[in-house]
């Protein structure tokens, strides 16, 4: 059975998985439009409203509406609602859409720590600078609860990896000594909420970042599929702790059509891997072997070791070629 047929929904990360800088990654649109199961877009990026995200998805050819988008800003407000009652004053460090969601949830949004907000919520906004971060610090030092939409330290763009919300949150945490309560991935709530939206019993979480997308799907007891099109590359996979290890590994979206047994870590492509002291020796392969086949071969052995391997030792022409393509 192939991966898509084994699941009844796709819970999809956006940046580095579906698109990069708003441009669709290879095969993504065709696969989603033809997969035959509902897709829900689960994003840690709190800088856009669900409506804005769905409009961007439609612009690249995907049939998506706001009801099939779940953002970490929404999750943060749900999380805060368990402690901070509607009607309370809150300081939002983030996008206008985040403020609008807070108002819709019944909160009074303020702009200054002098207004004595009950909570500070921080989400990604490219215009955030020293003044806003300092306002958050003043409020938190005066007793406001501190919530973050997500803690992603980097953000994939068409030029590479830019500063993410987690890095900006880190500045406030360093200034106050207060760590935020994070609502987004890798917490499982967003995944459970997304699956419930489409009545999914066997969802597949798809993402490019091990410590958020994959860890979150794993925490929600879901199957996970890691694509090598974004943040986490081959070497990070080899060293991944148990909670960050995906069920399936693919070079890209097109490999969602693979049989489940092939996409799992296992010896394939005529490669062979074995432990040699603290290292893994990779041998074999042939002219048609791929770097992803070499990776799955190595992962099966690496993940059975008590500690990550020190080095991967390629011992054939094809192994050397495969390992050279890893990052």
UniProtKB/TrEMBL annotation:
<keyword id="KW-0378">Hydrolase</keyword>
<dbReference type="InterPro" id="IPR006439">
    <property type="entry name" value="HAD-SF_hydro_IA"/>
</dbReference>
<dbReference type="InterPro" id="IPR006357">
    <property type="entry name" value="HAD-SF_hydro_IIA"/>
</dbReference>
<dbReference type="InterPro" id="IPR023214">
    <property type="entry name" value="HAD_sf"/>
</dbReference>
<dbReference type="InterPro" id="IPR036412">
    <property type="entry name" value="HAD-like_sf"/>
</dbReference>
<dbReference type="Pfam" id="PF13242">
    <property type="entry name" value="Hydrolase_like"/>
</dbReference>
<protein>
    <submittedName>
        <fullName>HAD-IIA family hydrolase</fullName>
    </submittedName>
</protein>
<dbReference type="GO" id="GO:0016787">
    <property type="term" value="F:hydrolase activity"/>
</dbReference>
<dbReference type="Pfam" id="PF13344">
    <property type="entry name" value="Hydrolase_6"/>
</dbReference>
